[in-house]
Amino acid sequence: MTKLSAHIFPVHAYREQKRYMRRFLKKPKDCTVREFFSRVQEINNYLQVFPSETVDPSTPLPEEELVEALYHAMPNSWRTEMVIQGFNYVHHNCMELLNFCERLETLEPPPEKKKDNKKSSKNLLARLVTESANALVFSPRPKTKDLVSTVCCTDIANTRLTNVKI
User: Are 94 and 34 within one domain?
Assistant: First the structure.
């Protein structure tokens, strides 16, 4: 199993995953704190399955490092509030940090919900059709020998050119 995982995983996967978790992890805005903490802890537990680069087996991040990674993954405004309130993450465990962040989360306004694409695309299409119908520019051309007048119709973006004989 070790050889198989070493074959499937990219080179230095264990080291790169730990580095990412320590330095670049950020909480998404549309994710609750509890969901984020849960997922990070799940990923942390998967680290023991990664192939080790040394003779020592791969291990998850210890709780102190995990708390530090989670603290730095929080929005800057939350970390500022932690400093203002005297909450030092070094002296707390994951559950205490989670509880504090959930209290901060309740003070945040709810994230904006995205509009239904089907409704907005229908409205957009209707608006574009109306605007393009109103925006036709007629430029008369000289009359031909047959006394037939040709009118050139284009829309504002000049994307459509139509000759109409009158």
Answer: yes
Closest CA to 74 of 99, 93, 101, 96: 101
Strands ordered across the beta sheet of 161-165: 137-140, 150-154, 161-165
Identify the domain containing residue 96 by its residue range: 2-107
CA distances from 12 to 44, 47, 48 (A): 16, 12, 14
Say which residue the tokens 């991040």 belong to: 61
User: Which residue reads 């509890």 in tokens?
Assistant: 34
In this predicted model, what pLDDT tens digit does every residue of 45-100 receive, in sequence order? Answer: 999 999 888 888 999 999 999 999 999 999 999 999 999 999 999 999 999 999 99
Asked whether residue 102 falls in the same domain as residue 38, the answer is yes
Instruction: Decide if 152 is inside a domain.
Output: yes
